[in-house]
# Entry
Amino acid sequence: MGKSDSGAADFKLVGFKNFVRVNPRSDRFRVIRFHHVEFWCTDATNAARRFSWGLGMPLVAKSDLSTGNPVHASYLCRSGDITFLFTAPYSPSISAAHPSSPASIPTFSHRACREFAAIHGLGVRAISLEVEDAEAAFAASIAHGAKAISPPVFLDGHAVVAEVHLYGDVVLRYVSYKSTDLDLSRPDSWFLPGFEPMDASSAFPADYGIRRLDHVVGNVHELGPAVSYVKKFTGFHEFAEFISADVGTLESGLNSVVLANNDETVLLPMNEPVFGTKRKSQIQTYLEHNEGPGIQHLALVSDDIFRTLREMRRRSFVGGFEFMPSPPPTYYRNLNNRAGDVLSDEQIKECEELGILVDRDDQGTLLQIFTKPVGDRPTIFIEIIQRVGCMMKDDEGKEYQKGGCGGFGKGNFSELFKSVEEYEKTLDARRVVESSTTSAL
Ligand SMILES: [Fe+2]
# Structure
């Protein structure tokens, strides 16, 4: 499918400078929030424990053999409002021998899960949204071109789950509840029937300050068809975009569009690779290693990024997550000019110590850092962020932060490029001094 056809009628990249943000409040169904993210893997116990330890997200619930589920092993990690679900298949013949014991995740498929893990490695299968009515959300999506993955399934008269295709082998899962009065001590109430609580360790209270899922980014071959498809069936609007040329260096190797719901609390950026740059596009590298489109990164909001980073870095080489190399000192020298009015000298020093990047847009400031890919392949990674500014009041006078405050880090492409160049010049200067010293000797 070429870029010139396929939905180009309702979507065209215009670039950051020409993009005008409007919120038409065009959602096709009522979206409440991100609900959970499901990873498909071959061994859920190990994957869940690694993420729990590395991110400070306690294991809070399970559905496995011990709870009477012979179909799949599922473990839930939770911190603040974020829930990660890790699911792996049990023996298909064992589960076939217990036809009366159903899977707790009603859309689970042995074949699809096995194929997913073999093709993609560790990755995200489902982005789940809590919606007002999953049955209505599914019907509206299908009516507007979404490809059905699972029709609505009704669970114990309590919850409804349905799925549509998002991109690659990733699905958008809708979850809704019949009652608004959920029991937070019982995962079969606040999550799904069939899940039972797990005792958290009091010896190692794992909470490093991560609170909320901010955005979930997908890599696709071509933005045009992918954005048109999702926009059409969700009704989400374009919240931001930038193209390779915007960042000035042509080094980013990507074009990007962010879709958002009415409240701008569910942010779904998508990237496509750009070709002909000096270095190969990181998006193209992803697409090759992932064998197609999929989730590139999950951005998690911390309420204290310095604390979260200190805790995560302590565990980087003892089972936790490693981070991308920190920028050179020149980056932090320039940071005083860029964000000195928002961050104190001490905070800038802390950013440098922890390797945190800073960017801003016309509304607020973004502090961000990226892990290295979390699994074997150079595919999915995690971003930890804190957004500063953009505080608003709702109709009842309650304070909240506007979604996407401070942007997504576009400015860091050129800023990092500039600071690396400046840094390399200082190294060259040193080399000249060293070589002249040597020759003098
Ligand atoms: Fe991001």
